[in-house]
Amino acid sequence: MKFTDYCLRSEGAEVVLATSSDEKFPPENIIDGRSDTFWATTGMFPQEFIISLNKCVTINKLTIQCYLVQTLRIEKSMSKEPVDFELCIQKELQSTEGELQIEEFSFPEMQASYLRFIILSAFDAFVSVHRVIADVIA
């Protein structure tokens, strides 16, 4: 079995919405495939971003690499536009004291063309999101 990560710019993914933007740490860093680059929020919560996949895909596992995120909500949409989102999961994350938080979420064949990540609360005034990985069996 071959796994493909559809949350990569090279696979046609785009960040179509982000509630904050810093030119040094833009939202596009989430989909560049690197853990050493990131999107930084500009304070105040909730914060969110939406990733557009280049087609409707079946996702088996989502992984997010982030820092200082406390409460995370993930939603999906199968629409042609980023509307009609449905809750996938909401979770309280553990603080990792200076380390990246790496959270994996398994789904029994979840279909999505858009993924919305809502950071409801944080352990500090700012958070960073380094990568989102969507494992899709090709």
Compact summary:
Component of the IFT complex B, at least composed of IFT20, IFT22, IFT25, IFT27, IFT46, IFT52, TRAF3IP1/IFT54, IFT57, IFT74, IFT80, IFT81, and IFT88. Interacts with IFT27. Interacts with IFT88. This protein has 138 residues and is mostly beta strands.
What does this structure look like?
With 138 residues, the protein is an all-beta fold. It has one domain: Sandwich (Jelly Rolls). Helices cover 0% and strands 57% of the residues. It contains no helices and eight strands. Strands 1, 2, 3, 4, 5, 6, 7 and 8 form an eight-stranded antiparallel beta sheet that branches. β5 (69-77) and β6 form a beta hairpin. It is globular and about 35 Å long. The termini are close together.
C-alpha termini separation? 7 Å
Order of helix and strand elements from N to C terminus: EEEEEEEE
Number of domains: 1
Number of helices, where a helix is a run of at least 4 consecutive DSSP H or I residues: 0
Got a strand count? Answer: 8
CATH class: Mainly Beta
Helix content: under 10%
Mean pLDDT: 94
Shape: globular
At the fourth CATH level, what is the homologous superfamily? Galactose-binding domain-like
The low-confidence parts are none
How large a portion of the residues is in β-strands, by DSSP E? over 45%
Query: Measured on Cα atoms, how large is the radius of gyration?
Result: 14 Å
Tell me the CATH architecture.
Answer: Sandwich
Find the structural class using helix and strand composition: mainly beta
What's the CATH topology name?
Jelly Rolls
Major sheet, described briefly? 8 strands, antiparallel
Subunit structure: Component of the IFT complex B, at least composed of IFT20, IFT22, IFT25, IFT27, IFT46, IFT52, TRAF3IP1/IFT54, IFT57, IFT74, IFT80, IFT81, and IFT88. Interacts with IFT27. Interacts with IFT88.
Protein name: Intraflagellar transport protein 25 homolog
Domain F5/8 type C: 18-121
Family: Belongs to the IFT25 family.
